[in-house]
Specification:
By secondary structure, the chain is α/β, with parallel strands linked by helices. The protein has a single domain, classed as Alpha-Beta Complex (Spore Coat Polysaccharide Biosynthesis Protein SpsA, Chain A). The chain has 10 helices and 13 strands. α5 crosses α9. It is globular, with a radius of gyration of 19 Å. The protein starts with 5 loop residues before the first strand and ends in a 16-residue tail after the last helix.
């Protein structure tokens, strides 16, 4: 799975649905039980064999950088106590991953956020993970599934799930031809269509593998809904050349960008962690060497 080396985390949004909690705290730092959403995302990327984590941030997002850095006063205070082990997962990520950051000066859509990360990615295929889509499962996590598919198809891959027809206006919706169980060659995609205009109920969620030509495609894509650069519109240009695969992933997703989804994810994770028979996925992924 080493063909994808970098994962881009767009994290410049304001998180307005969680005000006032997100007035001074990034929404990606909201905790599911005791671990912030962004850490679950980085763990998922590492489980896919990715060690280079690239963040597109904005004003007020300093906590993201601080979380994956040494906190000398805190760590000195808890050294030798039973609380020291609570940082073991975070320390592991800091040891085996590299973290780089750039800023999105204006919040102008996911396509613009991804384009802002070009300086961190360069000319190679890469993953994109939206941390407020919290995904769980019992086998390979979603990003690992996409990386394995990329090894076969060598084109852009999007994760999809079926949503109620009444909710299509919240997602990018795809239409395509099923080539294998759960795998579709995309022929059309529409950003947030009304139910009457939706070509299907297959919705794109916050997991992507993108080929590097996507940056030029985004640059040539005119603004779409709300005057924003939509990644769906850019992917449609690739799809017209048969270069986008959609995959109905194995696992469960919680929309932690909404209050209801966040509460459901917290309750699910707390109950799961209390289950003595639960064996967490090996997010530490492939054997790492430093």
């Amino acid at each position: 799975m080493a063909s994808i080396k970098k994962c881009l985390f767009p994290a410049a949004g304001y998180g307005t649905r969680f005000l006032p909690a997100t007035k001074a705290m990034p929404k990606e730092m909201l905790p599911i039980v005791t671990k912030p959403l962004i850490q679950y995302g980085v763990e998922e990327a590492l489980a896919a064999g990715i060690t280079n984590m690239a963040f597109v941030t904005g004003r007020g997002k300093r906590a993201l950088e601080d979380h994956f850095d040494v906190s000398y006063e805190l760590e000195h205070q808890i050294a030798g106590s039973d609380k020291e082990s609570l940082l073991s997962d975070t320390r592991y990520l800091m040891e085996y991953c590299t973290f780089s950051y750039t800023r999105q000066n204006e919040v102008k859509g996911l396509g613009h956020a991804i384009l802002s990360g070009e300086c961190l990615i360069g000319d190679e295929p890469f993953a994109v993970l939206l941390a407020d889509d919290y995904c769980v499962g019992t086998g390979d996590l979603v990003l690992a599934q996409l990386v394995q598919l990329y090894a076969r198809y060598k084109c852009s891959i999007v994760a999809i799930e079926d949503v109620p027809i009444t909710e299509t206006s919240r997602y990018g919706i795809i239409d395509g031809e099923e080539e294998a169980p759960g795998i579709y060659r995309v022929r059309d995609m529409i950003e947030k269509p009304a139910p009457a205009d939706a070509p299907s109920t297959m919705a794109i969620i916050g997991r992507y593998i993108l080929t590097p030509d996507i940056f030029d495609v985004i640059r040539d894509t005119p603004p779409g809904k709300n005057g924003e650069l939509q990644i769906t519109d850019a992917l449609l240009q690739q799809a017209r050349h048969g270069k986008v695969i959609a995959y109905r992933f194995n696992g469960r997703r919680f929309d932690c960008g909404s209050v209801d989804g966040f509460i459901a994810a917290t309750n699910y994770t707390y109950s799961r962690n209390q289950n003595q028979n639960f064996k967490p996925p090996d997010w530490r992924g492939i054997n790492q060497t430093k």
